[in-house]
């Protein structure tokens, strides 16, 4: 069972009493696997990702466990984290136009990872940074390494971000909405690049776009209001979503094969903000199936006859944490 | 490409030179006419009890009886020949009087600039990097005091403590390095406080930027963040403050030179205004304007050197 490279259990991030932003994130990934973390804005995706690298805001308290190849990532000192970041865990941020230092050449920004983690030979660093740039598909890499970020296109900048993330040959690459700022064709290229270049790592891929999930993920974790409502293998979650929220998210993705008539269905209502979350199912204000029992929080449990886990009293497509096999097959 | 860039630089320099000449023309003209409205130097220069005829003769001798537009044209004509005029009071060329004083003011202003830049940038960085911790709590009131104290007050306080009470440092005149200390500290204190406050703000603003988070995600520690990432990015706002502070230092040097009987331009300014010494005042104002324009020009060049996004045409390149 422990062929898992990344093993996150019950990750919690809180900004104080009543301000629990992430309340129990559990996910696992093998080497070479991509886990997509999906959910609407404000549900705690970025915060979870930052917490894994120890980059959460100063006022945030993090608890739980996150092991990467047996190494505990949480509760580390800043000094220990500096050895982990860039080396074991690296990040690709959303907007490369602000995430890169505007006054430093892109080559120097790639080399910096190696300089921090012990490659003292300057020429070796330079050589490797050019190789990395070429590997992520930047043409004329040797010259491009001397460019500043503003001299590159958005897609090229995001490739540079990926080269930075790969420079330390990390075990975990966390990509936080890496393609949101890009247009569609470039987005597809960058996704393909991420998939190819991370064969030796686990990837935590954050997005709110179910269409992107279908393209890149092996496993899906659906978050809602700081908690996991459904997780499972990509095929199962996409074809047989168990949680009403997952189903609603999927219904709002345009199907490229079906010409769209009128507006896409959107999920009415909004995610309850931090101070307004109670002990019940967080989705119940927006859930078409909500009943009295939903005032109690449904636990995340396995679905019968599948590999997914779901947190809902009345899951769709068969078994949830409450119903028996007989009830479902009746 | 090369030739195009060279042409762009030439065009830019040409435009800046044109702007500078227009600014200088405006300043000299404004001062010239403002002075003629301010009063009659002959009244002041004439000895006690001089007759109206004597005063009129003196006015004629100074050329002040000619129509103002005539005086103005003469003034501009002389200026074009590099002639700044004669001091009414000291009977020497204004240029000579000024050049004698320049080294003293340059010494004082440079010492104050270096002092305030080092103290201000240092304190601002320390405050920003230790937000909410004791170094910030110690420095914040100091900065507030520095900003609230006018130069004459700081100067008198320093003289009382270091010259009168402990007799450590000279309080007047210029003889050697010792005598530079008190005036320089006086002149620098206000600027240092301003620079510290601006530096703190600039560093905090940069620390919030995404690229800092990226650097941290690579494993960069504080030392690397400061030297490799922050230093260059805050150098631009800091340079802007320093350029403004040069103007403030020149203004502040008038008061400081008076307090410490420092034989610089500031003192000369006060003398020339007291005596309605029109040519001397005009020359000093012209000099100040030239210095101010030169500082701005150097600052712009420095921007272009520091920030690759700034082109010499003054526009930031697109994304
Ligand atoms: N410094 C902070 N102090 C208090 N609350 C915060 C802080 N940072 C984030 N939060 C809260 O934590 C919650 C999760 O934010 P997070 O940025 O992780 O959302 P997200 O899922 O990444 O959304 P998006 O899709 O918009 O990026 C939000 O409700 C936000 O208001
Ligand atoms: S527990 Fe109830 S409210 Fe929550 S998703 Fe399931 S049915 Fe809807
Ligand atoms: Mg986010």
TrEMBL record, chain A:
Q: Which UniProt keywords apply?
A: ATP-binding, Cell membrane, Membrane, Nucleotide-binding, Transport
Here the segments flagged for biased composition (Basic and acidic residues) are 275-298
Transport: present as a keyword of the record?
yes
Protein family: Belongs to the ABC transporter superfamily.
Q: Which residues form the ABC transporter domain?
A: 6-250
Matching entries from SUPFAM superfamilies are given as: P-loop containing nucleoside triphosphate hydrolases
Q: What is its main location?
A: membrane
Q: Please name the NCBIfam families in this protein's record.
A: oligo_HPY
| A Gene Ontology cellular-component term | plasma membrane
**Stored Pfam families:** ABC_tran (PF00005), oligo_HPY (PF08352)
UniProt keyword Membrane present:
yes
Xref: CDD domains: ABC_NikE_OppD_transporters (cd03257)
Q: What protein am I looking at? A: Peptide/nickel transport system ATP-binding protein/peptide/nickel transport system ATP-binding protein
Extract the ranges annotated as region (Disordered).
263-306
What topology in the membrane does the UniProt record assign? Answer: Peripheral membrane protein
The record's annotation in InterPro entries points to:
AAA+_ATPase, ABC_Ni/Peptide_Import, ABC_transporter-like_ATP-bd, ABC_transporter-like_CS, Oligopep_ABC_C, P-loop_NTPase
Q: Can you name one GO molecular function term for this protein?
A: ATP binding
Give any single GO term for biological process: peptide transport
Compartments where located: Cell membrane
From TrEMBL, chain B:
Q: Which SUPFAM superfamilies match?
A: MetI-like
Q: Does the keyword Cell membrane apply?
A: yes
GO BP annotations listed: transmembrane transport
Q: Which UniProt keywords apply?
A: Cell membrane, Membrane, Transmembrane, Transmembrane helix, Transport
Keyword Transmembrane in annotation: yes
Q: Which InterPro entries match?
A: BPD_transp_1_N, MetI-like, MetI-like_sf
The record's subcellular locations are:
Cell membrane
The ABC transmembrane type-1 domain sits at: 102-299
Return the GO cellular component terms, semicolon-separated: plasma membrane
Report how it sits in the membrane. Answer: Multi-pass membrane protein
For this protein, the parts annotated as crossing the membrane are 12-35, 108-130, 142-168, 180-199, 234-260, 280-306
Under CDD domains, the record lists: TM_PBP2 (cd06261)
Q: Which family does it belong to?
A: Belongs to the binding-protein-dependent transport system permease family.
Q: What is this protein called?
A: Peptide/nickel transport system permease protein
Taxonomic lineage is:
Bacteria, Bacillati, Actinomycetota, Actinomycetes, Kitasatosporales
